[in-house]
Hints:
The structure is a homodimer.
Chain A: E1 4-10, H1 14-25, E2 29-35, H2 39-47, E3 53-55, H3 58-61, E4 67-70, H4 77-84, E5 93-96, H5 102-111, E6 119-120, E7 122-125, E8 145-148, H6 156-168, E9 172-175, H7 178-204, H8 209-215, H9 218-223, H10 231-240, H11 242-265, H12 268-286
Parallel strand pairs in A: 1-2, 1-4, 2-3, 4-5, 5-6, 8-9
Antiparallel strand pairs in A: 7-8
Amino acid sequence: MQAVKKLVLLGTGLISGSFALALKRARLVEHVVGVGRNLDNLQRALDLNVVDAISDDAAHAVVGADLVFIGTPVGQMGALMQKIAPHLSRDCIVTDGGSTKQDVAALYQAYLPQQLAYCVPGHPIAGSDLSGAAAAQFGLYEGRRVVLTPLPESDAVVIEQVRNWWLACGAQVYQMSALAHDEIFSSVSHVPHLLSFAYMNSVLDRYNAAECLDFAASGFRDFTRIAGSHPDMWRDIALANQSAILNDLRANMQQLQSLIELVESSDGIALTNYIQRASLARIEWGKPLKGKK
Amino acid sequence: MQAVKKLVLLGTGLISGSFALALKRARLVEHVVGVGRNLDNLQRALDLNVVDAISDDAAHAVVGADLVFIGTPVGQMGALMQKIAPHLSRDCIVTDGGSTKQDVAALYQAYLPQQLAYCVPGHPIAGSDLSGAAAAQFGLYEGRRVVLTPLPESDAVVIEQVRNWWLACGAQVYQMSALAHDEIFSSVSHVPHLLSFAYMNSVLDRYNAAECLDFAASGFRDFTRIAGSHPDMWRDIALANQSAILNDLRANMQQLQSLIELVESSDGIALTNYIQRASLARIEWGKPLKGKK
């Protein structure tokens, strides 16, 4: 497998830092440069040997790189691509860790038109409450899934190369279209986050919100864990995957309307069936190792 | 503090069994009888010394008891009260662990009219995925909350007695009206469960449900953990606390409608503010020991 001579992380955090650490452990990278705007965070990345050098200048940092990993929120990726475009080596591979893929594909097309054969958008599925370079870990991708959504222009050899690096990180690598990716992740990631925000805000709107929150227990805790997620990141995702998300939110409104009618009807058997359908599916889902992902 | 000579558990499971074990540890109970319909479960309770005797006959079991704890789903409580009414000692205290309280209060009024001074409805807040007598544990109520919702007829001395038993179990004891209880728990327990069922069913309705579930990860796992809850128990709760739940579900529909409009508007700042409100509140909620409840 081809080793990376110079890997540049644009955005040095949990996702990109753990990718760098895993490649280091696999002896598949010689030199890692961490780029970012938060100097404290970069310094920690350097102290922890997540990266070997740091920079606040993306354009300068990518010179001579053979792999660039864009690990920023999706909202910052376009400006970064524009900045680095004139400075990339002709055969530098560019990938990313963005949670949405149709919009990121459009950014590659818009800002790196000369580089497209070497661009392979990706999405490592490794959500965590933690963030920042200090949270990076060698084993984050062990057994985790990584979805690659190659561009029509992506070179097959380059796709294979990116796949092999992820495999070396211990990940299971999947490939699908950006559209299929965005629909799937709208349904099982983006929409649950938005529903959790909406639920939390509905509690806050109550006249007795403080008292309610005071008695909230473990069910509430788990249901709302993702409501504590980062506002900027989730604004970006909501706007980036707007169409799939709106479809799913509307389907959830319909679902909620049906549930309201069911509760109003006092039809115990129908209500049991409704709950049982969800309950059996959730128990089934939790059975294999999936709950550990 | 007054010790219990004969405690009868109607329904021998996690909630009632842990109450019995905690009282045993505090040396506040002499003899515990477990009543239930599942003989395997009763035998396990006996083997594990959660109870000292077992019975499948509630009416016979309560004879001579000075404390009865009704630990069944709310839907079974009325029939049990009716069954035991003629066999209770005049001063036998009756309490329960039901998750809804207005409907349980009505059951006490309907089926135990002679006993009301000695009846103190309660709700120990100790949700768990586990159930059954085998899951009962001495320390389940350590630091947990127990809400008592006395009847207008409940005797002050009796209320104090029940409160002291719970305190001896390590619980924090609160007192409020059944109405206030039901509104609070609709908002932070019942409705999250129903929303989680509805969300799960909306995923199951997708043409690509299997593929979506295959890529679901930790956010989905936590958001839907409560969707795996017991259908009969949650049907009972949905029907028992129908009015508060319908109010809250409708408020959540409104909230979802606002969120859809917000996503449609592509207004990044408003969307950030919306998410931030939820996120800050959730982070604040998780700060103290509450997350451990």
